Automatic annotation (TrEMBL):
Cellular component GO terms held in the UniProt record: cytosol
Species in which this protein is naturally found: Deinococcus terrestris
SMART domains xref list: ALAD (SM01004)
Protein name: Delta-aminolevulinic acid dehydratase
Binding sites annotated in the UniProt record for 5-aminolevulinate 2: S276, Y315
GO biological-process terms attached to the record: protoporphyrinogen IX biosynthetic process
The family this protein is said to belong to: Belongs to the ALAD family.
Lineage of source species: Bacteria, Thermotogati, Deinococcota, Deinococci, Deinococcales
InterPro entries: ALAD, ALAD_AS, Aldolase_TIM
Enzymatic class: lyase
PANTHER family (alphabetical): DELTA-AMINOLEVULINIC ACID DEHYDRATASE
PROSITE patterns according to UniProt: D_ALA_DEHYDRATASE
Amino acid sequence: MLERPRRLRRSAGLRALTREVSLAPHHFIHPIFVHEEEGETPIATMPGVSRHPVAGAVTQAREALSLGILSVILFGIPSQKDPQGSGAYAEGGVIQRAAAAIKAEVPGVTVIADTCLCEYTDHGHCGPLCQTGEGDWTVDNDAALELLARTAVSQARAGADVVAPSAMMDGQVGAIRSALDAAGFEHVPVMAYAVKYASAYYGPFRDAAGSAPSVGNRASYQMDPAGGEREALREARLDAEQGADFLMVKPALAYLDMLRALRENFDLPLVAYNVSGEYSLIKAAAQAGYMDERRTVLETLTGMRRAGADAIITYHALDAARWLREEGGA
């Protein structure tokens, strides 16, 4: 007898009835760039995305919630930077003020604070620099741990619901977990950027945050794109053992195999970061008329869910939530 799988694709109702993967606004985490300037500043390399003042970040969080997006992640852009990235852990820092304002005015939104130093250092690296024996510059891992822990505590004190260390320093999750617990923030989860690659897909983000390294590069601490599954599982295991509450893969689209590997090996919630370069590629192709933006975005995000992501950080979040609502998917 001829098998006919097409029977179950014949109508929209049958296709919906037999889907294995769901995509809804509550799966999205909306990224917000917060700066200390007046007004919004569009980001040329990320069409449709802007830097916002604190009041604008509140507006963005409110809009996200109205569309069914329950979480935002904050990235800070200070007006002054220094070698130690002191703006990251300043009690009155831009992320601290934005987190406090959002929790006061839009309490239904979960605020995730990106916990890193690269947006705050004048050299663009994720911690204080030191010289290697070969005369090259790299990040002083253990000095960075202390500053990252201070940053996480200050973010939690300001009202952040989750801290998300992204520096790829060895031991960062353990240092942050210990510091949070000692400061009375045992309830604040850690979302670990567990598997984060030294990727070309970050270019637009570095333009947005002014965080391109002025010396060297991040290949000595972010993961090698040619690294395999063993390295990814080792990094994820270390973060899980140190107390991570979430694991993340960044970027997502070129590393769906790593998403699947983590899903099969860990039972922690898994986050995919649909990064700036992935966003800008689709935007550029859509603006040139090469691709249908709506269909491409929803297919891409569905692929990340199918690979195992429980949540997706994506600059498409607001548009995707609107499209899903129009389709009756939310």
